[in-house]
Amino acid sequence: MAKYTPKAPVGPRRPPSQTWGPFIRNHLAGTLAIDFLTVPTVTFGVLYVFFVLSLERRRVLHVNVTAQPHAAWAAQQLVEALGPGAPPATRLIRDRDRVFGKVFDTRVVHLGIRQMRTAPRSPWQNGFAERFVGTLRRELLDHVIVLGPRHLVRLVRAHIAYYNEDRPHMALAGDVPCGRAIEPSSAGRVVALPRVGGLRHRYSRAA
């Protein structure tokens, strides 16, 4: 019977839709990623670090610390991240953590930003944020004992300054997120300038 059944007309095939990874890579400009990470303290408490990452230049726009995360607090951090000097934002990648409640969603809508929630148990869909978390742990948190919120926010913000202004990124062809001028060899010998209390260094030429 199959050979007598009329066949559908063959037309041009529709191009396949983009999968998640290529879509994100093609829309880095205007896309933000946010996430929380937990940090234990010397007294066995738990602190939460919240950050806002601009994907276009891998630049961390904002970071803060709290012991009690909630939707209104997270929404306010996002507003502060998008202050003067921040790149325009149209998309936001986040996971489905319950801390991002209705208050957060309403604030994001008022900012004119489209939210893109990752699928359950799919941290790879927020890969840029996950890689930053790994960097922060390897380069800072694995080497310190946190005393409390003030101590942690001071450490993390010092590392963010280093990350944005001094740390080269392979994805940026060796540049830093905030941009850095190329120093010719004639500028002098290479010296190491301590950053983050000496845990990290900026290598520069000095006459």
Would you summarize the structure shown here?
This protein has 207 residues and is of the alpha/beta class.
Descriptive notes:
The chain is an alpha/beta fold. The protein has a single domain (21-179), classed as Ribonuclease H-like superfamily/Ribonuclease H (Nucleotidyltransferase, domain 5). Helices cover 28% and strands 24% of the residues. The strands form 2 sheets. The protein has a 5-stranded mixed sheet, with helices on both faces. Strands 6-7 form a two-stranded antiparallel ribbon. The longest helix is centred in the last third of the chain and has 17 residues, at 149-165. The chain starts with 19 loop residues before the first helix and ends with a strand. The mean pLDDT is 91.
Query: Describe the biggest sheet?
Result: 5 strands, mixed
Distance between the termini: 86 Å
**Which residues sit in consecutive blocks of at least 5 with pLDDT less than 50?**
none
Task: Provide the CATH top-level class.
Answer: Alpha Beta
Major sheet strand order: 3-2-1-4-5
- Number of strand segments: 7
Please provide the ordered H/E string of secondary-structure elements: HEEEHEHEHHEE
SS summary, helix count: 5
Which range does the strand content fall in?
15-25%
Helix content: 25-40%
Domain count: 1
What is the structural class? Answer: alpha/beta
